[in-house]
């Protein structure tokens, strides 16, 4: 198994040394593997900070079932007599003109009924401050309320009101209003002064306290102290996490930040704040947090995040053969097969370190031990400890009462991968216990692909392709917006070209076109044809390919053409019905791909060359008819009693030339054509771009030719084949002019020199005017 993975990775080693340019490239998050999804556990207040190839993004930190901390403070202030909805409306939706005795809002009505004019006064003032809480440049001074002096008056008014009130509730709120206004007035010293005067000595730390600390952190000039404040805000004010998360100085020593913490809870908050920025290993931070505050939900969040990193470092390259979506590499490290293979194994070892820590902790101390037990199962799978993994999954299955829960479904995914991976190479198949999980998650592309890849690594390429074919089903997203994971699947070919689109795959056909040998394709076709099962799983597994047999026989014949096995190609093409040929390679019926048509008879016509051979056999060109004709002409050419052997060899050579990049029958070998002539990394690239078989049969025509003129024409065509070969081996990617390039190619072409030396009388005509080919062809007798 290990040797097989190494072999496949060796085939893609060049990918890691070059970047893709001027070609399709999937976005990192599209191919990142993540099975241990953050949404499995209810840490939604951290949603924007889950591990992702995307940058941190603002998200709503509270669900509908949550009570906003500020609303809860007002609710308690009203002794629970006003519902949350009315409080929310009054605080966040009403304007200042709506605050009067006739208001239907229950909070406003409550204040008037109880003659709480202090609360009404505060709400009115706070509403008047709202328009001042923004940065706005007003060079023409058209809006007085954006004038710093106007804002300054409100700052002083808020400060004065905070001194006048006897209510601690309103004293803190007025001070916060002053601090916030100071921030938008860029009076940072006053922020520090107000915070130190009122909040620094405050023992009751509610949301108003942390809102004020947020602005104080923004105003703080000491980076270590600012980071300490930011960490406490991040931990205690979820609605300010997005606003404060950038208050992180990567060069600051964590010990300096910890110096400001007064207790273990605050120290744990510092580790959380710094660890969430880390895209490399953070186990030591997690260990410190556990020692300081084991009941901290941020600790469990970081564990999930750490496992998501490991999944990316191990699963992404292991399954897709692409780099992890994020990795903190040494800038001096060379990307090569050895480093990639070693890194996967090193990351599995790191996963084992995390596993050792997870199993060592006291579950009774944690706020959610199910997170840690589930993490253990995932880590056991990553580290290939399959027996222990299955034991842990079975244990957790008994603990989870609802089989409809996301966590239970996740356990089934872990089990399915574990069971599939734990099979002997050469004897792997889709186990009965795995089938229900595949069916339930049939639209989850990365999971389906992972099972298929495991089977492929174990030697079962037939079932692998059948699963890969099902990737075309399902939507683009699996609904997992909590960690921004796209439900797409891109993977690397074992024949990779770093400068070509061909290296990436998202569906089965192009993949097997580039990577599977004819015998493997025959096994696949046989499995499809012999399948008689009608159960739900078999119906799904064969749902795509049972309708693709014509296309697969086309591909099989094409693969045999690539290796020049014409008899087997003919046998494969014979299994394809005429309707398929009409729909795909001709202009007579409706053709879904009008560029893939045989536009000329490849035996008699050359691209960009005037017709010079009379067409004797008019046939409707398909892959089948062309192969038949090629076999027929080869037989005539090889027949020693045939008087026109040179003629038939020439027609055969024309056909082989036309089946290259430069001909009108290129679709006999490939399914796509590009004028750029990029290497496709198919098995016949040298022939497709180098015209070796065409050259071989033009030589046969030359050797059997009876006139000098026809020999000269054959040599001219041999020279053309050599020219294409040289262009392929020496592509035009240098700084000289095209004329200089043509001159270099011409000078390297020995057959043009032979033409000039052996047939000087015909040289000029044959190399300067292809319209004269007809005259030379006629003089072959």
Q: How would you summarize the topology of this molecule?
A:
Blueprint: H1 2-11, H2 28-31, H3 69-77, H4 84-92, H5 106-113, H6 117-129, H7 148-164, H8 168-184, H9 188-199, H10 207-219, H11 223-236, H12 241-244, H13 254-258, H14 264-275, H15 283-292, H16 297-320, H17 337-360, H18 369-382, H19 386-399, H20 406-421, H21 435-440, H22 445-457, H23 461-469, E1 491-492, E2 504-505, H24 508-515, H25 518-530, H26 536-541, H27 549-562, H28 566-573, H29 578-584, H30 623-638, H31 645-658, H32 685-690, H33 692-704, H34 708-729, H35 738-748, H36 750-758, H37 760-768, H38 773-778
Antiparallel strand pairs: 1-2
Helix pairs in contact: 3-4, 6-8, 7-8, 8-9, 8-10, 9-10, 10-11, 11-14, 14-15, 15-16, 16-17, 16-18, 17-18, 18-19, 18-20, 19-20, 20-22, 22-23, 23-25, 25-27, 27-28, 28-30, 30-31, 31-33, 33-34, 34-36, 34-37, 36-37
* Physical arrangement of strands within the biggest beta sheet: 1-2
Number of strands: 2
Q: What is the makeup of the main sheet?
A: 2 strands, antiparallel
Instruction: Please report the number of helical segments.
Output: 38
Shape: elongated
Distance between the termini: 62 Å
Low-pLDDT stretches are: 1-22, 136-145, 475-484, 497-502
Rg computed from alpha carbons, rounded to a whole number of angstroms: 37 Å
Helix content: 55-70%
Q: What is the beta-strand fraction?
A: under 5%
């Amino acid at each position: 198994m290990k040797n097989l993975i190494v072999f496949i990775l060796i085939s893609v080693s060049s990918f890691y040394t070059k970047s893709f340019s001027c070609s399709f490239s999937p976005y990192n998050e599209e191919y990142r593997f993540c099975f241990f999804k953050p949404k499995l556990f209810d840490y939604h207040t951290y949603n924007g900070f889950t591990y992702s190839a995307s940058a941190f993004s603002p998200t709503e930190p509270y669900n509908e079932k949550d009570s906003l901390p500020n609303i809860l403070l007002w609710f308690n202030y009203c002794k629970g007599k006003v519902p949350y909805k009315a409080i929310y409306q009054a605080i966040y939706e009403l304007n200042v003109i709506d605050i009067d005795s006739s208001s239907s809002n229950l909070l406003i009505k409550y204040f008037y009924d109880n003659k709480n004019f202090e609360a009404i006064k505060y709400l009115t003032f706070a509403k008047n401050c709202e328009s001042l809480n923004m940065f706005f440049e007003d060079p023409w001074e058209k809006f007085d309320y954006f004038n710093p002096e106007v804002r300054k008056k409100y700052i002083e008014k808020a400060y004065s009101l905070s001194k006048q009130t006897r209510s601690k509730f309103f004293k803190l709120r007025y001070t916060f209003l002053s601090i916030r206004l100071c921030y938008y007035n860029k009076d940072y010293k006053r922020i520090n002064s107000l915070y130190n005067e009122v909040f620094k000595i405050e023992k009751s730390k509610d949301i108003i306290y942390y809102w004020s600390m947020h602005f104080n952190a923004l105003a703080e000039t000491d980076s270590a102290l600012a980071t300490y404040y930011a960490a406490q805000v991040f931990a205690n004010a979820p609605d300010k996490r997005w606003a404060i998360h950038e208050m992180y100085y990567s060069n600051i020593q964590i010990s300096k930040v910890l110096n400001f913490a007064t207790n273990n809870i605050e120290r744990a908050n510092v580790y959380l704040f710094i660890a969430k920025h880390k895209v490399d290993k953070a186990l030591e931070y997690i260990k410190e947090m556990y020692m300081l505050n084991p009941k901290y939900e941020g600790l469990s969040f970081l564990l999930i995040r750490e496992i998501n990193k490991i999944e990316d470092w191990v699963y992404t390259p292991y399954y897709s053969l692409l780099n992890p979506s994020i990795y903190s590499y040494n800038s001096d490290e060379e990307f090569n097969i050895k480093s990639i293979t070693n890194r996967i194994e090193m990351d599995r070892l790191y996963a084992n370190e995390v596993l050792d820590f997870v199993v060592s902790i006291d579950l009774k101390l944690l706020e959610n031990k199910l997170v840690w037990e589930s993490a253990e199962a995932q880590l056991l799978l990553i580290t290939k400890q399959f027996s222990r993994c299955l034991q842990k999954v079975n244990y957790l299955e008994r603990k989870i009462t609802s089989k409809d829960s996301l966590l239970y479904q996740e356990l089934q995914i872990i089990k399915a991968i574990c069971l599939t991976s734990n099979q002997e190479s050469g004897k792997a198949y889709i186990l009965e216990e795995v089938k229900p999980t595949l069916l339930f998650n049939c639209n989850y592309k990365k999971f389906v692909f992972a099972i298929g890849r495991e089977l492929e690594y174990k030697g079962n390429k037939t079932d692998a392709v059948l699963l890969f074919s099902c990737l075309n089903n399902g939507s683009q997203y699996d609904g997992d917006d909590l960690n921004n994971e796209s439900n797409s699947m891109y993977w690397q070919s074992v024949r990779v070209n770093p400068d070509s689109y061909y290296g990436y795959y998202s569906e089965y056909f192009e993949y097997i076109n580039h990577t599977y040998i004819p015998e493997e394709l025959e096994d696949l076709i046989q499995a499809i044809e012999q399948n008689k099962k009608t159960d739900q799983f078999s119906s799904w597994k064969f749902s795509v390919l049972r309708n693709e047999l014509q296309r697969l026989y086309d591909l099989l014949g094409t693969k045999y053409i690539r290796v020049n096995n014409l008899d087997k190609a003919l046998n494969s093409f014979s299994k394809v019905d005429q309707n398929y040929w009409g729909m795909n390679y001709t202009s007579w019926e409706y053709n879904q791909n009008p560029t893939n048509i045989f536009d000329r008879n490849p035996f008699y016509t050359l691209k960009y060359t005037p017709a010079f051979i009379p067409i004797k056999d008019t046939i409707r060109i398909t892959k089948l008819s062309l192969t038949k004709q090629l076999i027929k002409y080869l037989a005539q050419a090889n027949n020693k009693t045939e008087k026109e052997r040179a003629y038939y060899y020439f027609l055969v050579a024309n056909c082989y030339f036309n089946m290259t990049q430069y001909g009108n029958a290129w679709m006999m070998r490939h399914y796509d054509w590009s004028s750029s002539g990029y290497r496709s990394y198919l098995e016949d690239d040298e022939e497709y771009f180098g015209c070796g078989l065409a050259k071989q049969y033009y030589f046969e025509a030359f050797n059997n030719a009876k006139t000098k003129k026809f020999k000269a024409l054959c040599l001219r065509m041999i020279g053309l084949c050599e020219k294409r070969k040289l262009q392929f081996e020496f592509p035009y990617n240098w700084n000289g002019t095209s004329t200089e390039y043509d001159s270099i190619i011409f000078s390297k072409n020995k057959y043009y020199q032979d033409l000039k030396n052996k047939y000087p009388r015909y040289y000029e005509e044959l190399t300067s005017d292809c319209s004269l080919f007809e005259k030379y062809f006629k003089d072959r007798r």
